[in-house]
């Protein structure tokens, strides 16, 4: 009986020690660019703005994760709910995870990435302030805005500015961030 109990404990220990298939968040937390689709400048801007939101109000965290995929079947490899939980996004379930799926753009002479799809996971306590249909519309309008010219950095930054502005205005009754994407493009 003792041998059986020892074997069960050993098996459970080994199973629990197996490496998780979910990636770990980067130290900067707010941008996890596993697809290497964004420039360092964009990552720093997102981290700066999103950290400020969280440190000032102590609840909402907006986190971006990018993955490189070969085809749409690869999207199923990433469970957005489990990723949201493992990253522990937002205090009191006030987090938003935006996953961006990129593919390599082989038509360009430069190495570039093309956005193929996105997924979102929003915390239950944040959803009343930005319901899924409204969130989806906000993402569609800003991620695929015609002035982004399919440049991932412009796509993500415009979206980030608008998400921040939504929360600043609707939750905290603050003045929205004033931004100019042409200036941002020049800074890139």
Automatic annotation (TrEMBL):
InterPro entries: TPM_dom
Highest taxon listed in the record's lineage: Bacteria
Pfam families the UniProt entry points to: TPM_phosphatase (PF04536)
Domain TPM per the UniProt entry, residue ranges: 31-143
Protein name: TPM domain-containing protein
Organism: Acholeplasma brassicae
